[in-house]
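Request from the bench team (R.T.):
"We need a structural guess for the complex before ordering more adenosine-5'-triphosphate. Sequence and SMILES attached. Just send the tokens back."

Command: build protein-adenosine-5'-triphosphate structure.
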Amino acid sequence: MTTAAVQAVGLSVRRGGGLGLPGRRDRLDVLRDCGFRIPRGAVCGLVGPNGAGKSALLATVAGLIAPSSGTLELWGRPVGDEAHRARLAYVAQNRSLYPQFSVRRLLRLGRDLNPCWQSEAAEEVLEAARIPLRARVGSLSGGHRTLLSLALARGKAADLLLLDEPLADLDPLARRRTMGLLLADVADRGATLVLSSHVLADLEESIDHLLLLDQGRVRLAGALPELLAAHRLLDAIELPARRAAAAHPVDAAQSAGAPFSGASDTPAVVESRGSGPARSVLVRLHHSAEASGAGTAAGEPPTLEELVLAYLRRPDAPGWISPGMRPLTADAPEGIGA
Ligand SMILES: Nc1ncnc2c1ncn2[C@@H]1O[C@H](COP(=O)(O)OP(=O)(O)OP(=O)(O)O)[C@@H](O)[C@H]1O
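Reply to R.T.: structure attached below.
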């Protein structure tokens, strides 16, 4: 069994309580009972609504927040292991950098602190954006600060890159260029990249795994081909047809939009939208269809955007972790949740 780059089992994180007032119940479970595995070499998109816990998860994997329960391992070793420090690069959402330093001084610091430092890789990001080395960090624009953070992460040549909304404030050209560099780096080194984003179009072009968080819980996770192949978007023409119904026995209650019954061979309705000829239903195929590749299934697999939006609009739809991202343990070698 190859150890995953990141594996969580029953991971919960509790935050808050900073006021320290007796009797104050101001602590919040920002991650709840999360279980997933991110294989080595994956490019994993981390998505979810505002406040879902994406930043909390990235900071926890980076070792900056301690789990309150459960286990979290990087390359098979508990998070926080001293050896992890050199192997991971983390870019926080607030791009915390020393504002008084010059860009050059920060690069020197990167070189002095990291034995595998790659100056050219870092400088390439800065040169492409024409960021002068003599500039003071505090005087850089928001997008340039992001590029500087990504340049430092790139220079570190890490085995695991954790990037919190790395593209949010970059112009379209900088997005493409920087993403291209990062993807080429991780492919060359077999490194693992986890990046959060709200821009699904950006992710669609780059990721091969997806982790959808909502209210601190994993709603959906999997290798992208597995996730998409396990779902079908049926339109109004396909729904009433007897033949389609036989291939996909979406029963009357479900096709009317009732929540997933969770029983038998019936595909799970994730979301039913519209009415009459404009109606479309996203279903998740039963495990047997999923296992057989669902070659005869009616309807079309959804796009990443259709899939994510359907799950976000229907917080009551049951979550799912595809086999490729289920945590593996000695007690559950097929994966927890299989
Ligand atoms: N230091 C903290 N103390 C208490 N609660 C916190 C703290 N930091 C974050 N939270 C809470 O944790 C939850 C998850 O926040 P987090 O920043 O991880 O969400 P997110 O998915 O990254 O959101 P966004 O997409 O808006 O960046 C939120 O309810 C937030 O208020």
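Two things stood out. Residues 241-264, 288-295 have pLDDT under 50 and may be disordered. Residues 73 and 79 are 5 Å apart (CA to CA).
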